[in-house]
Design brief:
Shape: globular
Number of helices: 12
Largest sheet: 10 strands, mixed
Helix content: 25-40%
Low-confidence stretches: 153-157
Oligomer: single chain
Strand order of the largest sheet: 3-2-1-4-5-10-9-6-7-8
Number of strands: 10
Structural class: alpha/beta
Mean pLDDT: 88
CATH architecture of the largest domain: 3-Layer(aba) Sandwich
Strand content: 15-25%
Radius of gyration: 20 Å
């Protein structure tokens, strides 16, 4: 695949060990019996491979973009952030090496919060199973989502296109700020439609995922549009006439989204399955509950829906 010569800065993803691997059994032991029991459990099983977690397929696809990249200039970098100690984290690194994941940078905090290390690593996105860590990251201006398990479903998108990375976003309180959603919740749908119609030519302010979307778009732009390995979609409850402001905002930002679904309140899950999303980000727990029946979903606890 031919790429543009000017390679962008790498897309940097920070991920918790519980999002990358299925550590729920040992985490439950930690919650039940404490750190000593957890440490003994991990050490006794450090040669046993951890099963993949909810974010594992996405991480594997992202790291595959580095194939053919010049040495020392990856297109994507994944950083591991773990509340394990370096001692108990040996099982995690053994599993990373077994699966051939090119993850070399990591932080082990022995139970302390990991989110303060996201910015020093220059990460554009933080994925975690720990809702509190995600909330703290969002408070400090970092795109972050809590990953929730999805049912195993047969993807609609199949064949060679399954190797394409497909990422879907909600609009308000995710890509955009929540000012319009506040109008909808406080004054109703009619007031929301009027508010958006009157401001159709006024770009929406950016939300918590604006910076991540910019970085993702720069990576996409390095590939020919007809053979880009990344495909993006906006999946929003908005409908006409509230669609115009969204379209004009993305145009003002210079961002290309490959697909835009204006669902007018329809359940998002079946549409996300049809798109073949590797992950979907939304601020609404109701929408996440619909999505995770079909695809991996990341809850963004931001904005008026989460006050």
């Amino acid at each position: 695949m031919r790429m543009n010569t000017a390679a962008p800065e790498p897309l940097v993803i920070a991920i918790s060990s519980r999002a990358l691997f299925d550590l729920e059994e040992s985490h439950a032991l930690f919650e039940r019996e404490g750190v000593d029991a957890f440490a003994a459990y991990q050490r006794s099983r450090e040669d046993e491979l951890l099963p993949p977690g909810i974010a594992f397929p996405l991480v594997r696809k992202l790291l595959a973009l580095n194939a053919g990249a010049p040495a020392g200039t990856p297109r994507v970098e994944v950083i591991l952030l773990s509340r394990n100690s370096s001692d108990t984290g040996l099982r995690v690194f053994n599993s990373i090496q077994h699966h051939g994941l090119a993850i070399s940078r990591a932080t082990f905090t022995s139970g302390a919060p990991t989110w303060p290390y996201i910015k020093p690593f220059g990460a554009h996105l933080f994925l975690s199973a720990d809702a509190e860590a995600v909330r703290r990251a969002l408070e400090h201006g970092i795109a972050a989502a809590t990953l929730l398990p999805a049912q195993t479903v047969q993807p609609v998108v199949d064949g060679p296109l399954r190797e394409q990375i497909r990422i879907a976003f909600d609009g308000d309180a995710v890509l955009f700020d929540d000012q319009s959603e506040r109008v909808s919740r406080e004054d109703g749908l009619e007031a929301f439609a009027r508010h958006e119609r009157e401001r159709a030519h006024e770009p929406l302010p950016g939300g918590p995922f604006r910076v991540f979307l910019d970085a993702l778009h720069r990576l996409q732009a390095a590939y020919p549009i007809e053979s880009c390995p990344i495909r993006t979609a906006l999946v929003t409850a908005r409908s006409a006439p509230a669609h115009e402001r969204v379209i004009r905002t993305l145009r003002e930002w210079g961002i290309r989204l490959d697909e835009a679904l204006f669902l007018g309140g329809r359940a998002k899950g079946p549409f996300l399955q049809a798109f073949g999303a590797d992950i979907f980000f939304d601020d609404s727990q109701h929408n996440i509950d619909s999505a995770r029946e079909h695809v991996p979903a990341g809850h963004v606890p931001h904005g008026v829906a989460n006050n």
